[in-house]
Amino acid sequence: MTHTLTAVDLDAAAAALRGYGAPDLPHHAIADAVASDPDIAALAREHGWADGEVVDKLWAVVCVNVLGISFTEQVGRYLSRPQELADDVEAAVSARQVAR
């Protein structure tokens, strides 16, 4: 079952990601991540967007989608260089917005 994200969902997800150290992401980047892994929305409905498991999974999927990297690479970069990973995601999202 798919879950349509509301503006409230997207705002809550964005706030949870910012609290996690992620850059301020546009709603479409979050919606794309949730669309590619619907389990995130199900977990968020059950536990809330700020839940550690939800935000971990959401950030991993955002990184994989935006940067085109594997989950293994995402984990390695998150553990060794979390700020660089966040900076790379922010730059990639900004570049995509300019291209639109």
From TrEMBL:
Record's superkingdom?
Bacteria
The name under which this protein is listed is Uncharacterized protein
Q: Which organism is it from?
A: Micromonospora sonchi
